[in-house]
Amino acid sequence: MRYLLFSALCFFCWSCSSDYRYMTSVGGNSTCAVKLAPAQFKDSWYHASVDVVGRHISGLLLIKNMPDSAYRVVFTNEAGVTFFDFGFANDKSFKVHSIISQLNKKPVIETLRKDFELILGLPFRSGPYETFAMNDEIFFGVRQKKEMAYFITSKDCASLRRLELGSTRKRKVTVKLIGKQYPAPEKIELVHNTFKMQITLTRFEKNDSAQ
Amino acid sequence: MPDRLSSILLSVIIVLVGTTQVTAQYDGYRSIADLPAFKKKFAQESSKVMSITSDFTQDKTLMALTEKISSSGKFWFKRNNRVRIEYLKPFTYLMVINGDKMMVRDSDKENKINVKSNKLFQQVNRIMVDCVQGTILDSKDFTTKVFEGEKLYLLEMTPAAKTLREFFQTIVLTVDKQDYSVSSIEMNEPAGDKTIISFKNKRLNEQVADAVFAL
Fold first, then answer.
1. A139 near A26, Cβ under 8 Å?
2. CB of A25 within 8 A of CB of A112?
3. Residue B72 touches partner A, C-beta closer than 8 Å
4. Which of B163, B92, B177 is nearest to B127 (CA)?
5. pTM
6. Alpha helices, H only, chain A
7. Do B65 and A45 touch (CB under 8 A)?
């Protein structure tokens, strides 16, 4: 019984512990931030695969720069039917141009908005950056309304390791980049750490005459 | 009096502009004279098509973004209710319909769906099969206008159900006058985007193995 109580206490303490507890504030390295901040995204087509609480959906995702330097993110199924079309403006405003009724729910839109803002690197466009060190990594954080968005580099600033969105204690979203990096990442894996959702984007070259 | 004249002139312009829009909608096509006769012939001739093997190209145009994406692949149909669509370029994606069962496979996963359990899948399945089997004119999912061109018939289908109207403003089929097989499918979305699937190298009534539609 005593052992059980001890185990439960340990588990409770572990589950309450912060993912960022070993992070220490360090002096800013603006050269590194400028070098590796994911500030630009080239026009790209991706094959998208979304797994959310046991359901799987795939399709094509277009990320396009608009003349007013805003982004449009459009998700269609393979047969061409548009599921959603989102606009992300430079002034941080967001517009739903179209969305099918099955997805037209506030929590779904909010989740997708934050996910794509992180992938597009929008929180990192203006700073100011708060810089932290943990293990062998540097965390460049930009404060959001209730969260922090981080881009994480190696200690020597040789490479961008991943992006994260977290509360003060919990790591909520992780974005890993595989292969080529910004401004045209080859493969993007976005994982939600607080519920089961994963978005995988694999870049492909558009071929206007796919004969 | 001048007011009356200008209102008459305005009415004439509206009628003229309106007429021009209607006829310009499908260049080279006129309304079909004898719709019941066409329906009968369409059902008769389509029923002779036991199988189709074809290549296809698909062009999706995002109007507001002036963006177009093309893809291509292979298409198979076998009576009754069996369809296989395989996208090969620039991505791979497979969809197989076999009666009430459906399977989709993308680069990551394979999903088997019992169409009966999902109303939307049921509708999509029925439309696809009705289009290639020549039974679309009897479908309650659409109201259909039929036009006739030199080599093709054109069927403009407007969805009746709200669930379909959300996805499509119209679906326009062109049908080969020679063998009554579908030549192209144009899906027009409410926001103005469109997808055109064109069938090429069509071979009708060739032997197609059942294994092609295995789930």
1. no
2. no
3. yes
4. B163
5. 0.85
6. 2-16, 30-36, 106-120
7. no
CA distances to A44, B8, B13, B14, B121 from B3, in Å: 56, 9, 15, 16, 56
Q: How confident is the model at residue B203 (pLDDT cuts 50, 70, 90)?
A: very high
Residues contacting residue A57 through CB under 8 Å, at least 6 positions apart: A49, A50
Q: Which of A198-202, B34-38, B120-124, B129-133 has the highest mean pLDDT?
A: A198-202
Name which of B17-26, B151-160, B174-183 the model is least confident about: B17-26
> DSSP strand E in A6-129: where?
24-25, 44-52, 55-65, 71-76, 82-88, 94-99
Q: Which of A51, A63, A82, A86 to mutate to test the interface with B (most CBs of B within 10 A)?
A: A82
Closest CA of chain B from A91, distance in Å = 20
What ipTM was estimated for this complex? Answer: 0.82
B191 contacts A82? CB cut-off 8 A: yes
Answer yes or no: do A49 and B106 touch at CB < 8 A: yes
Closest residue of chain A to B87, computed from CA coordinates: A78
**Closest chain A residue by Cα to residue B94:** A78
